[in-house]
Amino acid sequence: MARLAGLLFLSCLAAWLFTSRAGPVVHSTPALSLNFFDDAASPTVSSSSSVSASPYYPLAYTAPKEFPTSAFKSYYNDPTGTSEEPRPAITDVAHRTYYPDSLANPTMLPTGVPASEAVFPLPSGKPQPRIDYASQAKANITAILRNGTQPACRKCLDSLRVGQRLARKEPESVPRVLTELCEAFKFKSDAATCQSTYSASVLGSIYAQVLSYADFDSEQSTDGQYICYMVLGASISECPLPTPRELDDEFLDEWFGGREKRVAPELPETRTRRGPGEKTKDGSNLRVLHMSDIHVDPRYFVGGEAGCTNGQCCRYDSYNGTLVDTKTHPFVPGTLGASNTSRPASYWGDFHCDSPWPLVLAALGSVKSLNGGKEVDMTLFTGDMVTHDEADHVSRELVTYTQQAVFDLMRAYLGKGPVFSAIGNHDSAPSDAASQHSLPDGRGGQLSWDWNNVARLWEAEGWFSHSEAEQARSHYAGYSVNPRKGLRIITINTDFWYRGNVFNYIHSRDPDRSGSLRFLTEELFRAEAKGEKVWIVGHVLTGWDGSNPLDNPTNLFYHIVDRFSPNTIAHIFFGHTHEDQFNLFYGVGGGNNLTTPSTLTSNAKMVSFMAPSITPGSNVNPSLRIMEIDPETYQVMDWHQYYANVQDFTGRDPNPPVFRHLYSAREEYGNFSSLSSSSSSSSSSSPHLEEGGRWPDSSPLNATFWSSLTEEMELRSQLVQTFTVNQGRNSIHSPPCVTEECVRAKICYMRSGSASIGKLCPQGYGSVQSGG
Ligand SMILES: *[C@@H]1O[C@H](CO)[C@@H](O)[C@H](O)[C@H]1NC(C)=O
Ligand SMILES: *[C@@H]1O[C@H](CO)[C@@H](O)[C@H](O)[C@H]1NC(C)=O
Ligand SMILES: *[C@@H]1O[C@H](CO)[C@@H](O)[C@H](O)[C@H]1NC(C)=O
Ligand SMILES: *[C@@H]1O[C@H](CO)[C@@H](O)[C@H](O)[C@H]1NC(C)=O
Ligand SMILES: *[C@@H]1O[C@H](CO)[C@@H](O)[C@H](O)[C@H]1NC(C)=O
Ligand SMILES: *[C@@H]1O[C@H](CO)[C@@H](O)[C@H](O)[C@H]1NC(C)=O
Ligand SMILES: *[C@@H]1O[C@H](CO)[C@@H](O)[C@H](O)[C@H]1NC(C)=O
Fold first, then answer.
1. What gap in Å lies between CA 580 and CA 395, rounded to an integer?
2. Which ranges of 203-310 does DSSP label H, i.e. alpha helix?
3. Which of 727, 710, 717 has its CA nearest to residue 604?
4. pTM here?
5. Which ligand is located closest to the Cα atom of residue 718?
6. Which ligand does the CA of 603 lie closest to?
């Protein structure tokens, strides 16, 4: 009933909006029918009793061949037929207007983000009109870079100091000087890339802020080294990565509020036997959808070059340099034919491209069917809904358009179960940017438009109360909510440990410049006092091969996890890599330290789960996960992973996606036969196992399970190949992992919960996306 009322409210709101401001609607579909929510255009569900892990779940869902036109109220083109990407007309609730067709029309690619989006630091001191700071800075940096006697890293650090002087005196000149230096010294492959990368409204103004606010002078500061290593690139600057800051006893005592508070209190016995939650009415597990990295590409151009050699593929301006001669004439979009397209972009998606709308709709449409015809109880969406694109194609408008459209779709397709989302590094403009509140000149709030927008939508969709939305506004889209008795979900903006967020290089030794980890810690103390179980939700993972996150914040996160696991933190959920992965966290107290924690299973305390992506980019099959959760302990008892095979999308009249059951975690990984029969009784995980090495049905898939799995993998290396197939979801492009070195590296990544630990593993085997 509540659901019906909600739907009526939404459609009334929509009706009011549509009449109050006439949008340029070309094709309208009949008014939103309630029927659509229950039956997305008669999908076919096939179920077979022979293979099913859990008879509750059907094994496959075939999306309807026709686009579910009722998904959106109106369109700028005819959404039926499969020859072009549907162009939904999305209303912006805040402004009561439609986003214009030109924003995302595949044939109207933008020529640069609006200049109004540039945010510069304030100049300090009085400008002296007669001094040409820009020419001086350029000349000074050129002299530094040309000085043959200096090592490259020294030159980079010295140049930053000159850049800082310019950024403080005349910030608006920074983009031009950076562009000219980029062209002169070939920081980027060509002049056009220099111009777009460093233009004011793309990254130039942000770089001006970083130059102005970073600390290049104090002896301890690592800001310069980080910028030279991460932003300019280690191969150009030749600067080493700064060694991680040691988070010693003094630091940790202060962080947790004293030595005594660094030790978790013993759980009262009443709480160890049962969880803080309560049984469901029918005694079943909760069913929670974990979905990640949708990356919808509204500019997807059906028939465009999917095998492109320039920029984004499946776009109007994509081409393959082998088949198109761009040396004699510049490429003219719209002139490709069958003879000069290597692989035309399928209506349903391609391995080298982000998700077209039909694929997103097929994925969301599959959930209820795959969950046995029932709505899931709750959804965790671990971020990244906006498409990957050239920096100058990503505007605030594209971000808010995508957020509005995708959250509305989730609300419509997933029903009344709440959706808890983490903001991803692509869910901002520019991509990867998140500014700390502590930035000078009032610049801390420069991304508030984004955090405000998601908070507003989460409230409007009915997932958040007003005060929860207010909290998200003031915590960079992070929040702490209590959706069910005894369960707390704490979400943080993980851009603050993502290497791509250049604001992180301002005071880079501080592991928590944003205050997000302080917020997390305080909320964990509060949850501990209340006896709640916590799920931590975010986008960018903290460990694996260490290539994505930053060392200092993820080391601190590791200590926080250690402090509150396993009694208070029940699980950690991330996304970002597009791949199915997990990370273990081991105890770092006592004789253990974070550099080399003992990876014995007896020392395993927590595990984080990275859900694979909906987007097939790159080289992976779209996938979603339905988890079974114990409603009393909030622990994962199992999950079912589904995927659609992108190869089936190709051809002249491509088949719609079929989402098939790929594996159940307990079935796939719950056989520890080698571990249980191994003679070395040092194996600490054996006490948890049943006869024959089975993981008991009543035991959760907790850190002990996943750490035991890594031990079983050491004995039975084929399991690493099973894992690798799942990493890419049966993608034909995933390279196998069968060599001794690959097996060793992957097990090492699984056991690395922070970036600095992951970096100690053999490198080069982290991803399955480079298969071709
Ligand atoms: C450039 O170098 C000259 C000579 O060392 C110095 O006087 C001037 O302040 C520098 N200008 C900038 C913008 O760094
Ligand atoms: C090169 O750098 C060294 C060390 O700072 C300095 O002594 C020398 O004058 C520089 N050479 C030129 C040509 O600027
Ligand atoms: C470009 O086209 C050539 C010739 O068809 C093909 O071999 C190559 O794989 C294509 N490049 C990409 C990136 O798909
Ligand atoms: C592609 O081939 C068509 C003929 O099939 C030709 O008209 C067109 O100019 C070619 N486009 C490019 C960019 O080479
Ligand atoms: C961490 O432990 C390793 C091995 O016990 C030791 O070599 C290293 O010095 C320790 N590091 C710190 C920071 O305590
Ligand atoms: C995982 O669950 C098993 C079975 O309930 C339990 O013995 C073990 O202590 C748990 N491990 C952790 C890290 O909580
Ligand atoms: C567990 O795995 C071993 C080795 O692959 C196999 O022989 C055994 O039959 C499996 N046990 C179960 C219950 O599937």
1. 30
2. 205-213, 223-226, 234-237, 249-256, 269-273
3. 710
4. 0.92
5. 7
6. 6
